[in-house]
Amino acid sequence: MPYRHLLSELDLGFTKLRNRVVMGSMHTGLEDRFWHYPALAEYYRERAKGGVGLIITGGISPNREGWLLPFGGTLNSVFDLHNHRRLTKAVHDEGGKIALQILHAGRYGYHPFVVSASAIRSPISKFTPKALTEAGIERTVRAYAKTARLAQRAGYDGVEIMGSEGYLLNQFLCLRTNHRTDRYGGSIANRMRLALAVVRRVREACGDRFIVIYRLSLIDLVEGGNTWDETIQVAGALEAAGVTLINTGIGWHEARVPTIVTSVPRAAFAPLTARLRAAVTIPVIASNRINTPELAETLIAQGSADLVSMARPLLADPQFVVKASEGRADEINTCIACNQACLDHTFRNERASCLVNPRAARETELVYRPTRRTLALAVVGAGPAGLSAACVAAARGHRVTLFDANTTIGGQFNLAKRIPGKEEFAETLRYFGAQLRKYGVDVHLCTRVDAARLDKERFDEIIVATGIVPRRPSIPGIDGANVLSYVEVLHGAPVGRTVAVIGAGGIGFDISEFLLHRAGDPQPQPREAWLDAWRVDLTVATPGGLAPAAPAPQPERRIWLLQRKKGKLGAGLGKTSGWVHRATLVRHGVKMLDGVTYLEIGPGGLKIERDGLQQWLEVDTIVVCAGQESLRDLVPTTPRSGGPRFHVIGGAALATELDAERAIREGAELAAKL
Ligand code: FAD
Ligand code: NAP
Ligand code: SF4
Q1: Residue 340 Cβ < 6 Å to ligand 3
Q2: CA–CA separation, 133 vs 118, rounded Å?
Q3: Cα distances (angstroms) measured from residue 215 to each of 169, 284, 428
Q4: For the chain, which domains are there?
Q5: In this predicted model, what pLDDT tens digit does every residue of 439-469 receive, in sequence order?
Q6: Which of 184, 457, 522, 671 allows an S-S link to 392, with CB 3.0 to 4.6 Å?
Q7: Helix (H) or strand (E) holding 286
Q8: Ligand 1 and 488: CB distance under 6 A
Q9: pTM (2 decimals)?
Q10: Model confidence over 154-164: pLDDT tens digits?
């Protein structure tokens, strides 16, 4: 059997999990309104049908004070039972198990009723919490127990008590946020009193035959966090209090260390779960940047964990488990940890979805039904938009011919995957390649299509997904030998030791990062080097596990990153990943200038004006990352009558604010309708 450790049953004594795959908690936005529960039920049903052992829902607050956002989802009255039963029934119908996550946000709540251990505002919220009184603590414990009991009545197989990521229970656990002088503050025994009371009361309310998971922060990654000795004391006490499983939490939300973005090495934090496992006798769950069945299998086989939690990977591919078990792992649509359509949406208060799987959390809206009338479709351009359209159309039963001028599929993703820390993007191309083969798409590479060819081949419909051409701004001297486009740089054109990058969008940032590395640097970055760069001490000998700052690295090049508009560079990057890119460039001494006017380019560099002052940036090379323009010359201005219908998607349709999320979504939406 493939992945025999990962796919083996786990016997918890009173119940069994069919395998070791846990779908970790992920807030989609559907949890917060009761009229979204039918859609939420379908979202979970697909994952249960895909074979996942245990699903953990998005966080539900036990009371009003614990809301993350005003009017967040609830389960604190019998009137909520009906909605939650839809979810549990959908999962049980497919043979899965489901636990409700109870999440009290504490000072991370974004509303005026926030409470915490002490009245200390978090750096990521504008609301100062009230310190809970002892009576307030007792009310909170009762609320947890009530929600857990209601969860049991709604058919949930268990609950996960969210005790990590800097939420309320974590706030009580750490001196950073707990300055109390009563029996809930001071020693670690006092600081864990609330967490233990919650676990005991939940256990009392729900009895022995109910899964109680505690998500424990194994490394806080903030000053004033706990040490490993304290964490192990807490873990032992949680076990004694009646917890069934301990799940791994990594880092507070306010931590300035990335914990899940794509540049974090896979399973970077799993050694902590392994150390926890050695210290307790109950099963433990590994999490964070585990996205393939191979890796999950290895962690369990080598004894680092008993189960593996994957939240985003199950968003990306609901059939992850079934594909792994049937020896079809190459067909898994791997989560590339971009956060663009999941967490970045959540932070914008939009429904979460997935960049590589636009059906995620839209299962009832974006449906790929078998076609009743097979069409002959041409898709021109095998970038993300064209690949998505070709694969969905072919899966629905259309006869699809896919053309690309390049020697390989992938369009600009072939450039993106060369950026250090973005190696995961190659997985999407592996997935699309497998889909093209599976559904028999007729692929013609090294074929630049023109209108005559399209006319000759008599297609019913033509999908133009030809993408973009990089913009070349009209600056005097732009045609000089010292000016390169980002495409030329990523294809290996020689670049000098001093560089000015024109344009500070996503690609300007990526190119700057690319140029900081020496050609031939190992990809991806080894875990130890990554941990050192971000000051992570996996021994957690110091509070929070933050090592002293390492000396600034010697940059490979001196780089100026420039933009015309006034304001912070990188302001348009993703909320959850932009700060990581910025911090990396700052650490390597990249100079970021806003409000720049480009005056001219000469052999000695780039002349700019800023704040009324003109100056020459004396650089060897100027790299242009000034956005793109649509390439759509195949679209006839006046379509031939009786000829094929043309559709335009992705960058070819609109280059402004184009990203792969839109490109893949547009391809899938169009193909679902044809
Ligand atoms: P493209 O990817 O440009 O594909 C168009 C394809 O059409 C090409 O393969 C081309 O060869 C082919 N073609 C053109 N004309 C013809 C013709 N006449 N005949 C045959 N074939 C033709 N996006 C994100 O969302 N997140 C990121 O982190 C990210 N990082 C990036 C990093 C870099 C360095 C780059 C360059 C881009 C990045 N992007 C990122 C942008 C993302 O790659 C694009 O938004 C996406 O590729 C657009 O898809 P598309 O299919 O519309 O066009
Ligand atoms: P972009 O984000 O639109 O940035 C283009 C940059 O060029 C801007 O800084 C713009 O700022 C500048 N510019 C525009 N016109 C110019 C002109 N005529 N002369 C000089 N400068 C000009 O586009 P991109 O960086 O090319 O990225 C393309 C897409 O890929 C983006 O939509 C992005 O979302 C996606 N992407 C995402 C990521 C990610 O990490 N999420 C990474 C890479 C790419 P000023 O006008 O102020 O100078
Ligand atoms: Fe993973 Fe990106 Fe999809 Fe989120 S949007 S689930 S990070 S691939």
Answers
A1: yes
A2: 10
A3: 10, 10, 30
A4: 10-338 (3.20.20.70), 376-470+636-673 (3.40.50.720), 483-516+555-626 (3.50.50.60)
A5: 999 999 999 999 999 988 889 999 999 999 9
A6: 671
A7: strand 284-286
A8: no
A9: 0.96
A10: 999 999 999 99
